[in-house]
Amino acid sequence: MIYHIETEDLWQQALLDGEYLPENFESDGFIHCAALDQVTNVADKHYHGSNDLLLLCISQKLLNAETLWELSDGLYYPHIYGSLNLSAVVAALPLYCDSDGTLRLPANLPEDTDDVPEADP
Question: Domain of 14?
């Protein structure tokens, strides 16, 4: 599972359009995502104090576009090179902002089992 942060309004527009591309896709050439252990740092760096945010939980197995894990700021982050097919988003959950502006993960994150490779018999 990989994760992407977006506003409620832009996600609702994507649902109407039938696909998702963030506003910065044309300039960046990919959709910025994060692993679960990177989400809170990314959220606080780029969205500290923001409200009306959703955490898109994306199944890598269901993605139609190519995903590459690329080095940025000393860590590897997943980047989706193409539009995000809505069927790959297994949940869109609200990110809550604490009184100090820190964003915290939702408590009801989906299980990450769909991206674990199956064992050979």
Answer: 2-97
Q: Considering the domain boundaries, does residue 46 fall inside one?
A: yes
Enter the pTM of the model: 0.88
Long-range contacts of 19-22 (CB under 8 A, 24+ apart): 19/83, 19/84, 19/85, 19/86, 20/56, 20/83, 20/84, 20/86, 20/89, 21/83, 21/84
Report the run of H or E that residue 37 belongs to, with start and end: helix 36-47
Query: Are residues 31 and 22 in contact, defined by beta-carbon separation less than 8 angstroms?
Result: yes
pLDDT, tens digit (0-9, with 9 covering 90-100), for 74-96: 899 999 999 999 999 999 999 98
